Amino acid sequence: MIYNSKTINIKKNNIKKKKYLKKELKTIILKSIIQNNNIKPIVRSTAFYKMSRLKYLYSISKQNNNLCLYSGKIKSTFNKFKMSRHFIKKFCSNNSLQNNKLINW
Questions:
Q1: Count of structural domains within the chain
Q2: How many CA atoms lie within 13 A of 63 on its CB side?
Q3: Both 30 and 58 in a single domain?
Q4: Residues 6+ apart with CB under 8 A from 27
Q5: Are the C-beta atoms of residues 74 and 64 closer than 8 Å to each other?
Q6: At CA 62, angle to CA 18 and CA 74, rounded to 5?
Q7: Which residue among 3, 30, 40, 56 sits deepest, i.e. has the most Cβ atoms within 10 Å of its Cβ?
Q8: What is the mean pLDDT of residues 55-77?
Q9: Do 68 and 82 meet the contact criterion of CB atoms below 8 Å apart?
């Protein structure tokens, strides 16, 4: 069950990243058209209209960078290792992570 959710989360994240990059290119082009004073006002107004119609579904704030590389979990991941807490514990117990020790109470 974990492996299915892993692949689904990773695929969703990759799709969102690709769509974000496409949208970002469009916004850069439209902003440059809007700010250019040498272009006709009609063209600038249509560019402004298209800019306002872009969806914010794939904006930078909607991107999920905290995704575990091994389990694909979104929650409880650490940015330093890009792993969830379960895999950090697993690797620390095997001494696979450098300069980290597993502390048992």
A1: 2
A2: 13
A3: yes
A4: 51, 54
A5: yes
A6: 90
A7: 30
A8: 74
A9: yes
- Residues facing residue 15 across a β-bridge: none
Q: Are 56 and 33 members of one domain?
A: yes
Dig out the tokens for 53 from the structure: 């119609």
Co-location of 73 and 101 in the same domain: yes
Distance (Å) of CA 79 to CA 14, 59, 105: 18, 20, 25
pLDDT tens sequence across 47-61: 999 988 887 766 776
Residue count (the chain): 105
pLDDT of residue 36: 94
Residue 69 sits in the same domain as residue 58:
no
**Tens of pLDDT, residues 78-101:** 877 778 888 888 887 777 777 766
Task: With both helix axes pointing from N to C terminus, report the angle between 41-53 and 2-35 in degrees, rounded to the nearest 10.
Answer: 160
Determine the structural domain holding residue 52 and report its residue range. Answer: 1-63
